[in-house]
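FW: tagging you since you asked about this chain on Friday. Here's the raw sequence from the shared folder, copied in full. Didn't touch anything.
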Amino acid sequence: MNERHRVKRLTLLRYVLAFPRSVWLNFRLLPYRQACRLPLLVSHRTKIHNLSGHIVLHADQLRVGLVKIGFSTCQQTDFRYHRPLLNIRGTLHILGECTVGAGASIEVSEHGVLTLGDHFNLGPSSLIVCNHQITFDHHVQTSWCCTLMDTDQHRLFGSDGNWCNPDRPIQVAHHVWLGCHVVVTKGTVLPPHTTVGAMSCLHGVFEEEHTAIGGNPAKVLRRGVTREW
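HL: got it, structure written out here
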């Protein structure tokens, strides 16, 4: 058996193993008519912490596996040891086709609203923590081990007793690519056709389209850039 056939058979086995959990998750979170089409395909290795929130599908046409969670890998991850994690206590809007890689985690707090645009791809071992509001437009992709958080997780208070580090929303426009180990902090706004270099730390509002940005803190490195999609 050559390598190509081995990979195909292994992928098919993973889909078969995912079937029981996927059926349960679809009927647990979606209206009956949507759940019957099994649009959510979830790896059997997925760790589920909480599903007290809501998943809202806005796609015009539903199909089996429209949203795949925990299957895609890369050379830096191993399907056997990297478990995706779901902690959905708030609202997750999914606007179309979506892929969440092996070992990736999505956490939406009770009052959080996370929106994933069409053709959204969260790379393996990446993390999204939505405590307030995070919005991705269509065709947004991340490499492995990216972190996006709209919160500091812990509250800080000034000498006057007031909360001084409130949560702030993150907005990512269409056709944005994040390289590996990128960190996107609260209050970040990325315009269309932005390419972010590996290991960059983003904070603040970026306004120019078609740029390559990078560094810590990130800044514009090159203008007039268009990534191949």
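FW: The first strand starts at residue 40 and ends at 42.
HL: agreed, and Residues 41 and 205 are 35 Å apart (CA to CA).
FW: great, closing this out.
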